[in-house]
Amino acid sequence: MYQIEYCLQYLLYHLQTKNRNVGDFMRKKENNTNSQLVRAALYVRVSGEEQKIKGLSLEAQQERLEAYAKEKGWIIAGVFIDAAKTARKNMRKRAGFQKMIEAVKRDEVDVLLFCRLDRWFRSVADYYKIMEILDAHNCNWKTTDEEYDTSTANGRLYINVKLSIAQNEADIGGERIEVIFDSKIAHGTVISGNCPFGYRINDKKQLEIVEEQAAIVRDIFNYYEKSVSQYSTVKYAREKYGINWSQMTIKRIISEKLYIGVYDRNGRYNGNFCPPIISKEQFGCIQNLSKRNAYSAPSGRIYLFTSILKCAECRHNLIGLVATYKKVTQHYYRCNQYAQRGRCSHNKAAREDYVEQWLLDNISTEFRKCKIEWEMRAAKKKQDASSVDKAAIKRKLKKLKELYVNDLIDLEDYRKDYQTYTAALNQALNQVREEPPDFEAIETMIGDNFGEVYRTLSREEKRTLWRSIIKEIHIDRDNNIVSIVFV
User: Are 78 and 43 in contact (CB under 8 A)?
Assistant: First the structure.
C-alpha cells in the first residue's frame, strides 16, 4: 500500500510540473475564435444514498458541470444521467451512458465532462474500450474535480493505477453487499422492490399476501392443473379476470417457488421466506405435469422467413411453427400478438410454401417497383436539398457565434439557435450524401435463372439467400403480402 501511495505522489508531482495536459485540445478551440465552439456532453451518475450525503447528488454534479462548461465558454450538447447505477454495472445497462456514447458516434460531441473519474468507470478494461470509440471520433474527456493527462506515458499509468484502485474498492464493496443480501434473505427481507402477483411489500420490507390477487393465483394454478395447457390458461385468465397475460407469464407463475414460501435464487435459499399461497403438494404436482407436457423444438429446424416476415397490422415479427397432418409436415408463421395476447386482428397462420411461391413469382416485379420508388424519392430529396441555401446557414452560424462571443446573447439563446441551424445544415448535407441501395447486386441475384438456381439450394441456403435480398416482408390478416423492403 505504501508503494502505491508513493507512486501516486510521484506521478502527481510529475504531472504538476508539466505544461501539457488534457486541456490542450480544448484550449486550442477556446483560443481560436474562428473555430467552432466546443460541444460538451455532461455525464452524471449516482449509485446510492451514501454518495448523495457526500455531495455527489445528481443535482450537485449537474450544477458543477454546467458552471464549469459556462466558465469555459462551451456549448452543452446534452446532459446524460444515470440514477441509482453503480459503476460496477455493465456499461450496456447504463442507459444514460449509452446515449452519450451514441452521440459521440454521431460526431455530436467534442468532449465528455464529468466530476470525477469514478463517476465514469471503475474498470480499466471498460475504460480502454470506450477510449477506442473516443479516439475514432476525435472526442476527449475532462473531469472538473481532478486533473489527468492522457498525452504522456506517466499520465496514462496514473489513470491505470487510479482505475485499478477504484475497481478494487468496488469489488470489496460488492463482497460486502453479498453478505448483506445473504443476511436479508435469511431473515425474510426483500432485496428489491419487485414481488410476484399476489404479494406486496409491507413496512418491514417483507412479503405479505394480497388476498384478492392470491385468489386469482390459486384459481390459475387449479385451472392449469386441470387443463395442463398454458395457452388455455392464458385464455381463461383473460376471459374471467380481464388479465392480458402471455404464455411466458403463466409459465413463470406456475414455476415461481415464492408461491410456496420458498426463496431459491442466485445460490441463496430460505424455505420459510414468506407466507405461502399454494400448497407444496399442488406445486410439486404441477411441476411434474409441466415437465411431461413440455415441448422442445427439434434442434436444427430451419424457417425460411424467420425475422423478416412481419405482421402488417401490428408490425411484430411472425413466429414460425410446424404442423404435421397425415405424416406431411408444413411450416407456418403466426402473429403472437394475436395468439398469446389477443392484441392483433391477424388471426390466420401463413403457410411458408405459399409465401415462398409468391416471392418466386413476384420478386422481379416487386424489385422493379421498389427501384422506381426509391429513384423518385431520391430525386425529390435532391430537389429539396438544392433549395436550401447552405451558405446562408453557415453565415448565420458565424453571425450567431459573434453575437455570443460579444455577450449580445446568452448561452441559452445561443444553444437553441445553434441547434436549429446545425440540424438544418446537417439535414441538407445528409440528403445530398445519401447512398443508394446496391440495386446492381440484387438484380444479379434475381436474374433470369433465379428459379432454377433456387430449387437446387438447401433450406439453410434458401434462408440465407432471402435474408441477403429482403429486409422485411409485410403480410396482412388475410395473408396477403402487401409490401417488401429490400436490403
Answer: no
